[in-house]
Amino acid sequence: MRVLEKEGKSKRIKLDKKDKEILAALCKNARIPLSKIGNLVGLSREAVEYRIKRLSDAHVIVGSRTLINIRKLNHFSFHVFISLHNPKDEPGFLRKLKENQNVNAVIKYSGKWDFEVSIMTKTPEDFYDIYNELLQDINIQDEHILILLNTIKGIVLPNKFLEKLPKATLGKNDFSFHKEFNSPKKNDYKIDRTDLKIMRLLANNANIKIKNIADKVELSPDAITYRIKKLITNGYIVEFRPVIDYYTLNLSIQALLIKTVCLTKEEERKLSSFLKCNDSVLWCTRTFGAWDVLMYIITSNQKEFHEFINELRTNFGNSIRSYEALFAYQEYKYTFLPEGINI
Predict the structure, then answer these.
(1) What pLDDT is stored for residue 10 in this prediction?
(2) How far apart are CA 135 and CA 132, in angstroms?
(3) Concatenated DSSP letters for 190-213?
(4) Residue 303 C-alpha from the chain's centroid
(5) Are residues 64 and 208 in contact, defined by beta-carbon separation less than 8 angstroms?
(6) What is the pLDDT of residue 3?
(7) Is 277 helix (H, G, I), strand (E, B) or coil?
(8) What is the pLDDT of residue 14?
(9) How far, in Å, CA of 153 to CA of 320, rounded?
(10) What residues in the chain have per-residue pLDDT under 70?
C-alpha cells in the first residue's frame, strides 16, 4: 500500500529530469545524504536540498517510512476486504480502525469493496479476536480474508516514472547505512524492547536523526548506530523509503485480486517473473484465502491499466481462474510497525 490523495491537499504537478533523478535516488534509500545525491545527479548539495523542499511543499514527498520485516518479529499480516451493509456505519468503523493498535493500514475503494484493512497479529486466534471486536455494532455485507505469504515485489515508484542513475558505489559509512544494506544477511542478533522502540521511531520517519532516537530511548548515538546496523544486517529493517503522494504525479492505484488454478512450480516462477519485471506493478504478494495473489497496479490512465490486464491474460490466461479489480480512492492509515506489535 502506498499514499493516495489526502483530504484535497494535493495538486498535480510535472517533474523535470533532475526531479526524477532525485526521486530515483531517494527511492533507493530515503536517508541518502544530500551531498551524495548531488554527486549522482550533477547538482550541488544546496540545489538538491532546494528541490527536495520544493517537492515536499508541492506534496509530492510527504514523509518517509522504514520497511520492517514483521515475519522476523513473528507476526503475520491479515488483509480483509470489506463491504458495509449501510454506508452510515462508515464513520464509526473508520474511527475504530484508526484507533486499533494492530491495524496498520486502511484503504478506501470505489466499487464492490468499501475497504481494505490490514491487521498484524502473532496468531490467527489474535486476529479473530481483534477482527470480531472491530465488527461490533457494524453490519457488513460481505468480506474476504487473506493471509499474506511471501512478497513478490515491492517498490516506491516504477522505473518508467524515474530517471536512470549511475550505479551507486559503496562509500564511507554514513547515516544511510548503505554498507549494511549491501552486506550479506546474518541471523545472529536477538532483538530486545529497545530495538523495537528504535524500529517504531524509524517506521514512521525514516529520516529521524540518530541523536533524536538516542534522546528518546536514552542511549548514546553510537549505541543507536550499532543497533540499527545489527537490525539491517539481520533482516529486521528492510528499506528506508520516501512516501509519495501519487495523485500529485497524476498517477492512480488499482488493486488486483487474482485466483489461479493449481500452478506447477515452473508456472509460479513464470508468473512471479512477469510481475517482478512489469513496470506497472508497484507491490505484489502471494496470499492464502479467497484469492491467491494481491497486487497494486500504478498507471497514468485507464488505457495503461487495460493494457496491463490484457498482457496478463494473454500470457497467463490458462493459469488465472478469475480476477477482480478495485480502484483505490483514499488512504486513511498506514504504518509498517503498529503499536500493537510486541516481542
Answers:
(1) 57
(2) 5
(3) ---HHHHHHHHHHHT-TT--HHHH
(4) 25
(5) no
(6) 47
(7) helix
(8) 85
(9) 19
(10) 1-11, 167-173
* Residue 166: DSSP 8-state: P
What whole-number distance in Å separates Cα of residue 140 and Cα of residue 124? 21
> Distance between CA 251 and CA 263 in Å, rounded?
33
Q: Which three cell numbers stand for residue 7?
A: 483530504
All 3 cell numbers of residue 314? 494473454
- Residue for grid cell 496478463: 312
For 87, counting Cβ atoms within 10 Å of its Cβ (0-12 exposed, 13-18 middle, 19+ buried), the class is: exposed
Q: How many residues does the chain have?
A: 343
Taking only the tens place, the pLDDT of each residue in 165-189 is 876 554 566 899 999 999 999 999 9
Q: Which three cell numbers stand for residue 275?
A: 510481475
Cβ–Cβ < 8 Å for 276, 153: yes
Element (H, E) at 78: strand 76-84
The structure's pTM equals 0.92
Residue 171, all three cell numbers: 562509500
End-to-end C-alpha distance for the chain, whole angstroms:
24
Residue with cell 483505490: 328
Angle 185-187-190 (CA atoms, 0-180°, nearest 5)? 130
Q: What is the CA radius of gyration of the chain?
A: 20
